[in-house]
Amino acid sequence: MNPWLSIEAEDYENHMSDSNVYQLQTLNSIMLSQISDYKPNSLAIFGIATGNGLEYTEMMDIVYAIDINDKYLTTCKNRFANRNNIKYLNLDIDNSILPFTNVDMAICNLVLEYIDYVGFIKKISSILNKNGILSIVYQNELKYGFVSKTKYSEVFECLNSIYHNIDKKTVIETSKTSGLTVSKSLEYKLLNGKTFTRIDLRKNNN
Ligand SMILES: C[S@@+](CC[C@H](N)C(=O)[O-])C[C@H]1O[C@@H](n2cnc3c(N)ncnc32)[C@H](O)[C@@H]1O
């Protein structure tokens, strides 16, 4: 069983938004800039969790909100019940054929660390429109473990079994062979000393 299925939505949010972690808030503002930079009409969000950033997708024609944890998707559905442009997809990114193609943009923030990221980049290239963007965010290698300490952090220990660091060179090389070109690369520094890398990859126009 994927360990993400054992983490309750409430524990997830309490931990991620704790002042010692502050990742939910940071990811929310990153998502706003990802969307503002490219203004897609169709968007796929991989690892939507409990819906962080979905509030910025109201004007889009279609939003695919994807997660392995169906309970997280239920939280999203309740929070965004007034929206009819969101399609929720409960699937495992590693083992599923994506049931859609032709999106302007795909966002994958803090998920690559838990999946086969090389396979993911190869797969995503084929569902992007020409000139479409894949924007990824990952946590950089850490000296003291990838889970920051909070009173909820124990429930995240199960993720140790699947967590792996992301190698930027591998991301760039895989992207190149998959027809994607780097259009932007940014670093975000968190208050607790962690850093996030964001890389935006554009699908070549051929
Ligand atoms: C750290 S959270 C993502 C944070 C979120 N993107 C944000 O911006 O706030 C990781 C999410 O990826 C989901 N996830 C992990 N492995 C997955 C997989 N193989 N397939 C689909 N979703 C997965 C988890 O259930 C969790 O909701």
How is this structure best described in words?
- This protein is of the alpha/beta class and 206 residues long.
- It has one domain: Rossmann fold (3-Layer(aba) Sandwich), CATH 3.40.50.
- Helix content is 26%, strand content 26%.
- The protein has helices at residues 9-17, 23-38, 70-79, 117-125, 168-177, and strands at residues 42-46, 62-67, 86-90, 103-109, 128-139, 180-189, 195-203.
- Strands 3-2-1-4-5-7-6 form a 7-stranded mixed sheet, sandwiched between helices.
- The relative contact order is 0.17.
- The mean pLDDT is 95.
- The structure holds S-adenosylmethionine.
- S-adenosylmethionine (SAM) binds at residues 4, 24, 27, 31, 47, 49, 52-53, 67-69, 72, 92-94, 109-111, 114-115.
Give the secondary structure arrangement, pairings included:
Layout: H1 9-17, H2 23-38, E1 42-46, E2 62-67, H3 70-79, E3 86-90, E4 103-109, H4 117-125, E5 128-139, H5 168-177, E6 180-189, E7 195-203
Parallel strand pairs: 1-2, 1-4, 2-3, 4-5
Antiparallel strand pairs: 5-7, 6-7
The structure holds S-adenosylmethionine.
| Radius of gyration, in angstroms, nearest whole number | 16 Å
Number of continuous helical runs:
5
What is the mean pLDDT? 95
Number of domains: 1
Helix-strand sequence: HHEEHEEHEHEE
Computed structural class:
alpha/beta
Small molecules (ligands, ions, cofactors) in the structure: S-adenosylmethionine
Quote the CATH topology: Rossmann fold
Query: What's the architecture, going by CATH?
Result: 3-Layer(aba) Sandwich
Please identify the top-level CATH class. Answer: Alpha Beta
CA(first)-CA(last) distance:
40 Å
CATH superfamily: Vaccinia Virus protein VP39
Choose one word for the global shape.
globular
Unreliable stretches: none
Q: How are the strands ordered across the major sheet?
A: 3-2-1-4-5-7-6
Strand segment tally: 7
% residues in beta strands:
25-35%
User: What fraction, in percent, of the residue positions are helical?
Assistant: 25-40%
